[in-house]
Structures are given as C-alpha cells and as structure tokens.
# Entry
Amino acid sequence: MRKIILICFICLAGNLYISAQGKQSENVISDTSPKNVNEMNKDVVQDEVKTSNYSFTGYYNVTDLGFLVGSTSNVNKAPFSFLTVNGYQFTEQLGAGIGVGVEFFSESYLPLVLDARYYFREANFSPFAFVRGGYLFALEESANHYIYHDYPVWSSFIPPTPECKPKGGWIINPGLGIRNMFNEHFGIVFSAAYRFQSLHYEYNDDSKLILESNRLDLKIGIIFK
# Structure
C-alpha cells in the first residue's frame, strides 16, 4: 500500500512539474509576440535617448575668448576679449549668471556683466540666444586720447595729446550661439554677437570725452557643469 501511495505521489509531482514547464513556455512565447517586441524596442530607444540627452539644470560655467571686431577706422580694430560666466540653469532651456573678464583696448578693462541665455532645444546640440549687459571698469589710471579741434588749414600749430583718466562705461551685448555637449559635464560653445559700448574719459581741465563704438563680438569657449 505504501509503495502505491509513493508511486502516486511521484506521478502527481511529475505532472505538476510538467504543467509548470508548459505554462512557463507559454509565457515565453507570449512575451515574444510582435506587440511586446515593439514595446521592448521602444523602451530601448527611450533608454538610449535618456543616456544621450543629459540634464541641463543646475550650476554651470562658460569660459570663452575671442575678438571684438570693429571698423578699420578704429584705433583698436580687433581687441582681445576674455570672459567667464558662472550661472544657474533654472530650466532645461533658461539660465542666467554673472560674468567677469578682461579686455584690451587702448587701455585694459574689467567687464562685469549679467548674462541671460535661452536654449532652443533640450538636447546636447542646441542653438541659443543670449544677452549681456554691464559695465567696463578701467584697470589703468591714465590714457592718452586726442580731442579733435577745428584749427584753420593754414595753421602750423600741432596740439599736444593730453593725458586723461579713463572712467569706464556701459555695454550691451545681444547675440546667438551654438552649444554642443560631449558628456554630462563638458561641452563647447560658439557665439557671435552685437556689441555696443560707451567709454568715458576725464581731463585735468574738467573736459570730458565719450567714445562710442559698435563691434562684432566673436567668441569660442567651453562649458562646465
């Protein structure tokens, strides 16, 4: 009797095992149906997109350099410009920061600007628009700028070039650029912008000189996050 019970138990266990294997094979077949395969492919594509487009919110630093190209009649046709901006990306597209640098005209200046930028795409490669505005602080105590006087043609008098004190001036700098991120923390930027500036000078006789100029601001730089 015990042998019969043992044989029945073995057969029941075998049937349960075979049934379980059949259900498992059915599940495998159903999981590989065309619908599920498409869903799996979509998930893979989405994962690839997530790994290729990083999050752009949070702190960033943009450090760039270039030239301020002006008219050929300017004393400084293309002075060197360096600027580093530390900012915060509030959304994937909108960010703002404070920039400081150095520029070399007839005198050296330290620009202190506010920088706001908007990226048109939430992707590694994106064009963007920006605007900067601020003040140029003179780094030198004196300069020489000739004040034009309308002397008669027959006059042989050559006026001296007086010494003046540079006082700095305001700037406005809107432009467009391109950002390309190589990974989550590093990328490169190119930009081209319009630059208007107004530099002020004071002379010992209380006279003043204002030099206004319009320039093309061309820069290349790197971005850190």
